[in-house]
Amino acid sequence: MEKTFLMVKPDGVQRGLIGDIVSRFEKKGFQLVGAKLMSISNELAEEHYGEHKERPFFGELVDFITSGPVFAMVWQGENVITTARGMMGATNPKDAALGTIRGDFGLTVGKNIIHGSDSAESAVREIGLFFKEEELVEYSKLMNEWVY
Ligand code: IDP
To answer: What is 94-106 written as a DSSP string?
Structure first.
């Protein structure tokens, strides 16, 4: 089953949005297979956002993502990577549709509440960066027979 890495960023944690965000993915029918509240080191932040190293906002991005705890998660389900991106909304909350997480809760691109892997390759890479194999839980969920 497809898996993706999702993370409530420090602004979402501080604003008390973890519960709402988890609830949206649960209600959609996805299955949580790993989760933890954690601090991100500078080293991990630079690795995670490596593709943006040359961008002018890179320093700001690393400072922000290390500024407070994040809630890191792994979710699984059919098409979870693309569907979760849709549920998050556009990168800049001002362009994100209402009903999406960024559209409902955010105002600026620098504080856009949530991160989600953008491809199968990113999902594998990011899950590996944030979680050890033994932190992911394989279990069958009774709900699934009413989802699929
Ligand atoms: P994504 O998070 O929707 O995949 P990316 O383009 O991969 O978007 O950018 C990563 C993160 O970098 C964004 O979520 C946002 O927090 C931040 N970011 C993107 N563009 C800007 C900018 O112009 N200024 C400040 N932060 C930015």
So the answer is: GGSPBTBHHHHH-
Select from 109, 121, 122 the residue to mutate for testing ligand 1; criterion: most ligand atoms less than 8 Å from CB.
Answer: 109
Does the pTM surpass 0.95? The reply is yes
User: Could you give the number of structural domains in the chain?
Assistant: 1
Q: What's the pLDDT tens digit per position in 35-88?
A: 999 999 999 999 999 999 999 999 999 999 999 999 999 999 999 999 999 999
Strands (E), 18-137: 31-38, 70-76, 114-116
CA–chain centroid gap for 8, Å, is 6
78 domain residue, yes or no: yes
Using most ligand atoms within 8 A of CB, pick from 9, 63, 112 the residue to mutate for ligand 1. 112
Q: Is residue 61 part of a domain?
A: yes
How high does pLDDT run on average in the chain?
98
Q: What is the CATH number of the domain that holds 105?
A: 3.30.70.141
Q: What is the ipTM of this complex?
A: 0.97
Atom of ligand 1 nearest to the CA of 111: 16
The boundaries of the domain holding residue 7 are: 1-140
